[in-house]
Design a protein that fits this description.
Oligomer: single chain
Helix content: 40-55%
Structural class: mainly alpha
Radius of gyration: 24 Å
Order of helices and strands: EHHHHHEHHHHEEEEHEHH
Largest sheet: 3 strands, antiparallel
Number of strands: 7
Distance between the termini: 38 Å
Strand content: 5-15%
Shape: elongated
Strand order of the largest sheet: 4-5-6
Length: 238
């Protein structure tokens, strides 16, 4: 489900929409609505499950949709809030714990989710939808930024599964990289693997400044003879 954060905030805080109507159509009680409206509770701490229930009401009520067009929308002045979030998309990110790009450490470093939050959610000890929307907004923003960065990076390396070298003045034979499944890989004595986070920005900067040269299968085969794990180097062509 896509949640329009501005619309949800407008429904919750605008006094022209009675608290009794919100209570009747969502999971929020009239007393909890009052806490947000008098400022005893901040909007960015609204639980995702409550935001979902408001969005469902909006989606299913044409009169409410029309009314929202007539009243001024609420401002999203809280730090980190985004215009909309996609709950199904974010749920897949949270569930994809085996992907190193979305590890507990990585997500907690770049979003408002704590390492302990992710540990409890992924173990099933806590319900994902009980967390506040500010955490989901930060995750949505981070993932979208990552995807945009990958698009920009991919423009520099249009060839998938094609080994290349960076055009350093003194190019070493084992200066071998490849772009596979939207991830930059490098070859080492341990085989093909991801570039460490410390090196990643440096490598992309070098690619942008110096350009790349794709290596032919014959060239890579020659390099493979020089290393003990050469057979793995050639797997890039499979």
């Amino acid at each position: 489900m896509k949640i329009n954060i501005r619309d949800v905030k407008t429904v919750l805080l605008n006094s022209k929409i009675p608290g009794t109507a919100i209570e009747q159509n969502t999971e929020l009680t009239r007393s909890s609505v009052s806490l947000y409206r008098v400022g005893k509770q901040t909007f960015d701490n609204l639980k995702l499950k409550n935001a979902v229930s408001i969005q469902k009401w909006i989606d299913n009520d044409e009169k409410l949709q029309s009314f929202l067009k007539l009243i001024p929308p609420e401002e999203l002045f809280e730090e980190g809030l985004v215009e909309s979030i996609d709950t199904e998309f974010l749920e897949k990110i949270i569930q994809n714990e085996k992907n190193p790009l979305y590890s507990n450490a990585k997500i907690s470093k770049n979003t408002k989710f704590l390492f302990s939050d992710l540990k409890f959610i992924r173990s099933g000890e806590r319900e994902l939808y009980n967390y506040p929307i500010k955490k989901f907004c930060s995750l949505q923003k981070w993932v979208e930024n990552q995807q945009q960065l990958k698009k920009e990076q991919k423009k520099l390396i249009p060839g998938e599964n094609k080994p290349f070298s960076i055009n350093y003045k003194k190019t070493k034979d084992l200066n071998i990289f490849a772009f596979v499944d939207n991830e930059l890989l490098t070859f080492s004595d341990k085989g093909w693997g991801g570039v460490s986070e410390k090196r990643l920005n440096h490598i992309w900067s070098a690619i942008e400044r110096k350009g790349i040269t794709y290596r032919t299968k014959e060239e890579v085969a020659g390099i493979a003879k020089q290393v003990s794990n050469g057979e793995e180097l050639l797997t890039i062509f499979k």
